[in-house]
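Session log. Operator J.P. requested a structure for one protein chain; no other inputs attached. Running the standard single-chain path with token output.
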Amino acid sequence: MKNLNLFDKFVFILNSLAATALLFSYLLPLIPPKSFPLLSVLSLGVPVLIILNTLFLVYWILRLKRQVLLSLIVLLLGYNYVAGFVKLPEADAEEERTSDFSLMSYNVRMFNAYKWSKRKDIPEKITSFINEKKPDILCLQEHYIGAAGVTALYPYKYVKLKAKSAEFGSAIFSKYPIINQASLDFPHHGNNNAIYADIVLDTKDT
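Structure written below.
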């Protein structure tokens, strides 16, 4: 950094932070989300880190500085990871779809089980809406276990209640087999949690 002016030194410090963060993000798929739930949130910033490192790469190329190697090496180390976020269209290539499936995420507010709304037809309205859309995979937040109208529509399900005695929680309903499922219980006493499931589609993919 001796040959850098004050501004370039500042840029290189920012570059180092962005490169370190991107390098660390490559390890996120190897870390079980249940062990470090908050770390999984960092994956949302990976596209931003890729863009930042690309901008730093271009900056150092234009400046003809060897600091270009930092972001270049980090981006090359995670080439397969980066390629998952950046897709270039292939010439004269038709998109080949082996299977399509529909997914719906819906906060049903416990189907108004505790009469927060004076309308009495809310459970029927929600069930009717889901029946109309017919999603292959249905993810419900604040699901009430007494809502049998939805449960009967899907042969496979995973329901995670807030507590053993609770009547509501998160749920995943599927027309395809669920082969694995788990929950992420955040370390506090709030009502927030997350669930996920591995689902086998017709193509044997999950």
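Operator note: The chain has a mean pLDDT of 80.
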